[in-house]
Specification:
- The chain is mainly beta.
- The chain has helices spanning 29-39, 111-120, and strands at residues 6-10, 13-22, 46-56, 70-78, 89-93, 96-104, 126-128, 133-137, 149-158.
- The longest helix has 11 residues, at 29-39.
- The radius of gyration is 15 Å and the shape is globular.
């Protein structure tokens, strides 16, 4: 695998959705997204149809640590926080530098992340920054489909 990312500066975004604390060993992603998708039409003023699957780590991501807990969010970008549906939360995703990988394949195939963190990142001029990681699930995203496409955004800073 040799996928080269685009290096982009993200502009800040307003996100609305649900979050759950989980680990890879106790993965609650499908539960989170089912809850979100049944109520996403309640969200006022979405900017587009792109979904954000975001992970927030309180301690730096530990490769191979299946019990490390993190917050997982299922969100959509909105223009404002004026009418947030009951039970949903808001998140201000701050601007910053990201490595953006175009990924095609099953979301359950974690080889792309192994490549990013064990091959690309150590050999790049960047290091991991302590900010949210996320995937943008756009029009070409198809859950559980080998032809699904998404963007993987990894927070970085110069070494």
């Amino acid at each position: 695998m040799d996928i080269q990312p685009r290096i982009k500066t993200l502009t800040s975004k307003k996100l609305v959705g649900f979050k759950l604390t989980m680990s890879l060993a106790e993965n609650k992603t499908s539960q989170l997204w089912k809850s979100f998708m049944t109520r996403r039409n309640e969200i006022a003023s979405p900017l587009n149809s792109n979904l954000f699957s975001m992970q927030i780590y309180t301690t730096p991501l530990g490769l191979g640590n299946l019990t490390q807990e993190f917050e997982k969010w299922a969100t959509i970008e909105v223009s404002n926080f004026e009418k947030v549906p009951k039970g949903m939360e808001t998140f201000n995703l701050k601007s910053g530098l990201y490595a953006v990988f175009n990924y095609k394949g099953l979301s359950t195939d974690h080889r792309i992340f192994i490549y990013i963190f064990s091959t690309w990142l150590p050999n790049s001029e960047y290091e991991l920054d302590n900010r949210p990681h996320f995937e943008i699930l756009g029009e070409k995203y198809k859950n559980n489909d080998i032809n699904s496409e998404e963007e993987i955004w990894i927070p970085i800073k110069p070494k």
